[in-house]
Amino acid sequence: MRNLFEGLEQGDLKRLIHTEMHVDEFKSKLGDDCDVVVLSFKVDNKEPAQDLVAFIEKGYDWVIDADVSAGEMEDGDYIVFVELDRTPELAENIMKLMDDLMNLTDGSTDEWRVRYYKSHKETRLNLEALHDLIPDTPEAYEKAYGQEILDKLKSAAGVDVDTKAPKNDYTESLRNLAGIVR
User: C-alpha angle with apex 138: 112 to 149, nearest 5 degrees?
Assistant: First the structure.
């Protein structure tokens, strides 16, 4: 059992943190995407968001950085960003963080969803889902998304991009909406 830090007690963040975690939706401010994973959580107010950041920064030596969005979103909520090294222990570390977060929210990870921004779908949060969704090494990230990064660089430089989108449910639905039938 971990000790809670500086005034945060069990249940203090109950109903203040939305039960959805996004992964790699935002760029790291401290490293390259292939090296750093960015988790993001939506929190109802600025003070609880700052409390969560302080809790995370003091509690885990494998967290690179945690921060709260500079301003509120249009719905009044704030985003908490957590940066972690992309390592083979990534999924286990995220679940350790989430287990501790459940103490602060009096919740259960069974209620949570995770979305890896490149997959465009939500999944129930569990260790297996994290292993399946998130590339856990720089090499795995490059293998999965290296061509996408190269295509973005080509596009920004004004060079023709000749890579075709992969065939999956998401891209097929886009093709159908665009009237491109194959």
Answer: 90
